[in-house]
Design goal:
Length: 120
């Protein structure tokens, strides 16, 4: 199976920065896309940033020019968050769509979530 381990959340003051990491492991033949979602209390989970295989990225309008998604060669995806605002407070989830065999359809996996709190 596929496991996703997230790290990097915490408490930061407005205007500060955090870097989230999500390491994927297990029987992954090919990754289709890696994304970050977030869910604030009382709100629906929303897409924050997505990187498809090949490197193209998309961002939620609310985080453009502040957040950057990136990926290294070890199946780890990062979310660099700068100029954080109180409204960025949420649980952040890593999402990976991957193929675990050469013939299987794509499957979706979620990390356990990491809390990001932006407060003075």
């Amino acid at each position: 199976q596929v496991q996703l381990v997230e790290s990097g959340g915490g408490l930061v003051q407005p205007g500060g920065s955090l870097r989230l990491s999500c390491a994927a492991s297990g029987n992954i033949v090919r990754i289709g896309e890696m994304s970050w979602y977030r869910q604030a209390p009382g709100k629906q989970r929303e897409l924050v940033a997505r990187m498809i295989n090949g490197g193209a990225t998309t961002y939620a309008e609310s985080v453009k020019d502040r957040f950057t998604i990136s990926r290294d060669n070890t199946k780890t995806v990062y979310l660099q968050m700068n100029n954080l605002k109180p409204e960025d407070t949420a649980v952040y989830y890593c999402n990976v769509r991957a193929f675990i065999t050469d013939t299987s359809p794509v499957s979706t996996y979620w990390g356990q979530g990491t809390q990001v709190t932006v407060s003075s």
